[in-house]
Amino acid sequence: MSTLDEIARRLEAVEGIDWSETAEEHAAEYYGDWLKVGPAWVLTDLTPSSPVDVADAAEGRAVAEFLQHAVADMRALLDAARATSSGSAESGRE
Question: Are the CB atoms for 85 and 4 separated by under 8 Å?
């Protein structure tokens, strides 16, 4: 199985998930606050009070934003890679 086929298989497994859904859970666990993105939970600090908390909160939000767009981004990159591959194969046949 090629790398592109493996990426496509993993992508197809999560493409039907609505990654735009988000929710916040304040102090739902002893460890802190959580930000839900689709079915995934990202540990974060929703009410930062120190510089370390602010950095952790920014990191958590960045991970959440990445998750929200990762499927669409991967689909676009995979489609572009396949178009480039098939374009190279076609130009080699000329």
Answer: yes
Is the full-model pTM beyond 0.85? Answer: no
DSSP the chain: --HHHHHHHHHHHHTTS-TT-EEEEEEEETTEEEEEETTEEEEE-SS--SHHHHHHHHHHHHHHHHHHHHHHHHHHHHHHHHHHHHHHHHHHH-
| Residue at token pair 């190279």 | 88
Per-residue pLDDT tens digits for 5-43? 999 999 999 999 999 888 988 766 566 788 899 999 988
